[in-house]
Write a structure and sequence with these properties.
The chain has 218 residues and is of the alpha/beta class. The protein has a domain at 87-211: Rossmann fold (3-Layer(aba) Sandwich), CATH 3.40.50.1000. It has helices at residues 41-48, 59-73, 87-94, 108-118, 130-133, 140-150, 164-173, 201-206, and strands at residues 11-12, 18-19, 27-28, 34-35, 101-104, 126-129, 158-161, 177-181, 193-195. The strands form four sheets. Strands 7-8-9 form a three-stranded parallel β-sheet, covered by helices on one side.
Length: 218
């Protein structure tokens, strides 16, 4: 003997409930509890389990994490740094008459650590870095920031660097005495003040009236 049943559209809970007339009907058992047709059981399971699967490492970030681990576990570039043989003798010769500072396009964290590893951090009164002041060489403001750190006017400061344009020309255009440290002896820049080793620096400074030479026109 057949039994009449009342079918009703199924609803899915969500931000806004909507009815789907094409969905399979829910059926009531003889006890009055809802019962779903067996043919749609797998479909219903998929609807209930809609949570996205979690990954231990999101795909878009996996390469980044491996890269970070590689960098952290790789060789330390600072640990392998060495001073040129003429660096300490030049600093010693200049220590009594000149103040020293550093201007770098690096960050203060890296540069300070490098100077400490090399054992010369205490020889520099100021360390100014582009990453921290937001201005980099050869912009004049970067050189002026270094002068301000020493409390000196640009014309009272000599800047020595191994890049002819970023260092020597940039410093000269900012009003400092820009000196190109041309260790390779490349030459070819007659407009720049040039030395090929730091052992030449004391004589160059003491020959300039801004840095100790006697003014013959006084």
């Amino acid at each position: 003997m057949g039994r009449a049943v009342r079918a009703r559209p199924r609803t899915l809970s969500g931000p806004a409930q909507t009815q789907d007339p094409s969905a399979p009907p829910a059926v009531r058992s003889q006890h009055g509890h809802p019962r779903r047709p067996l043919g749609h059981r797998r479909h219903d399971l998929r609807l209930r389990d809609r949570r996205p699967r979690r990954h231990a490492t999101p795909p878009a970030r996996r390469g980044t994490r491996r890269h970070v681990r590689h960098r952290r576990g790789g060789p330390d570039p600072v640990a392998g740094s060495q001073l040129f043989p003429d660096t300490l003798p030049a600093l010693e010769l200049l220590a009594g008459d000149y103040r020293h500072g550093v201007l770098s396009n690096s960050s203060l964290h890296n540069q300070d650590r490098k100077l400490r590893v090399l054992g010369v951090r205490d020889r520099f009164e100021a360390v100014v870095c582009a990453a921290d002041i937001g201005i980099s060489k050869p912009e004049a403001a970067a050189f002026h920031a270094a002068c301000d750190a020493l409390g000196l006017a640009p014309y009272e400061v000599a800047y020595v660097g191994d890049q002819p344009d970023i260092d020597a020309r940039g410093a000269t255009e900012a009003g400092l005495l820009g000196i190109w440290l041309d260790r390779a002896g490349a030459g070819g820049r007659p407009e720049l003040q040039r030395i090929t080793g730091l052992e030449q620096l004391p004589a160059l400074l003491r020959g300039d009236t801004r840095f100790g030479a006697q003014d013959t026109f006084g």
